[in-house]
């Protein structure tokens, strides 16, 4: 059952502003995190009013980091750095995102053999799929 995230995004990511790209975690459970971001005129990587959709891979990676950060905080531990190792079957259904777009990022744990983990990731806009990938991560 999904529950609300009790932590501000800054407390569960190893990143610091302005490189925190997702806005918040909407909910989580043992295997899943749903986060969101709204594209604004101040969003990093915005070019001529649009944001290339390939930035979505970093939204996925930061949502995975939020998953790890929530787990660490819930166990009384510290947030640790993690690395995006690869993305398989990356599909981008749109070339870019526009100012005002609200994106929902869902990451679901597929495999976890510390220090490696695999997540299925999807980004939707207005409930329509705009990007997906299977992402491999490493946390030393």
Task: List the defining traits of the structure above.
1 helix, 14% helix, two-stranded antiparallel ribbon, six-stranded antiparallel beta sheet, Thiol Ester Dehydrase, Chain A, mainly beta, 140 residues, 8 strands
What this model shows, in words?
This protein has one domain: Roll (Thiol Ester Dehydrase, Chain A). The protein has 1 helix and 8 strands; from the N terminus they run βββαβββββ. It is mainly β and 140 residues long. 14% of the residues lie in helices and 44% in strands. It is globular, with a radius of gyration of 14 Å. It has a 6-stranded antiparallel sheet with strand order 1-2-6-7-8-4, with helices on one face. The termini are far apart. The chain has one helix at 56-74, and strands at residues 24-28, 32-38, 50-52, 83-92, 96-98, 102-113, 116-125, 128-138.
Architecture blueprint of SSEs:
Blueprint: E1 24-28, E2 32-38, E3 50-52, H1 56-74, E4 83-92, E5 96-98, E6 102-113, E7 116-125, E8 128-138
Helix content: 10-25%
- Count of DSSP strands: 8
Q: C-alpha Rg, in Å?
A: 14 Å
> What is the strand arrangement across the widest sheet?
1-2-6-7-8-4
| Structural class label | mainly beta
Short description:
This protein has one helix and eight strands.
């Amino acid at each position: 059952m999904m529950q609300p995230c009790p932590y501000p995004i800054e407390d569960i990511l190893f990143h610091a502003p302005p490189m925190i790209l997702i806005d918040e975690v909407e909910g989580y459970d043992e295997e899943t995190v749903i986060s969101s971001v709204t594209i604004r005129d101040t969003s990093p990587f915005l070019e001529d009013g649009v944001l290339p959709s390939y930035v979505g891979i970093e939204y996925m990676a930061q949502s995975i980091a939020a998953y790890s950060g929530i787990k660490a905080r819930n166990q009384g531990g510290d947030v640790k750095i993690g690395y995006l190792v690869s993305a398989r079957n990356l599909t981008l259904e749109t070339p870019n995102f526009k100012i005002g777009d609200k994106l929902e990022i869902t990451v679901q744990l597929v495999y976890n053999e510390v220090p490696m983990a695999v997540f299925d990731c999807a980004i939707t806009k207005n409930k329509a799929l705009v990007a997906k990938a299977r992402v491999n991560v490493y946390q030393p």
